[in-house]
Amino acid sequence: MLYIARRLANVAAVYDSMDTITSGGDLLLTLLLHVGAAASISALLARLAIFRKVLFTEVRDSDQKLRLMLL
């Protein structure tokens, strides 16, 4: 029983230290920055004529598949 109490105390200490390192607001800000970066990259890609041409082609050759994969 004493072992379980010690393990629970250790787990609680780890969670307390994690809370001081990164709070929920920091994680939310990081997530919003990632979403914003992905949205801006996708908007830039959507404006490229090469990307639209490769994207809307129904049958792609190997060169077009490679371009789409790289973009």
Protein model, in words:
This protein is mainly α. The chain has helices at residues 2-21, 24-47, 49-56, 62-70. It is elongated and about 65 Å long. The relative contact order is 0.07.
Layout of SSEs?
Blueprint: H1 2-21, H2 24-47, H3 49-56, H4 62-70
Strand content: under 5%
Task: Report on the biggest sheet.
Answer: none
Mean pLDDT: 78
Report the structural category. Answer: mainly alpha
Helix/strand order, N-terminal first: HHHH
| Unreliable spans | none
Radius of gyration: 24 Å
Gist of the model:
With 71 residues, the protein is mostly helical. The chain contains four helices and no strands.
Keywords:
71 residues, mainly alpha, 4 helices
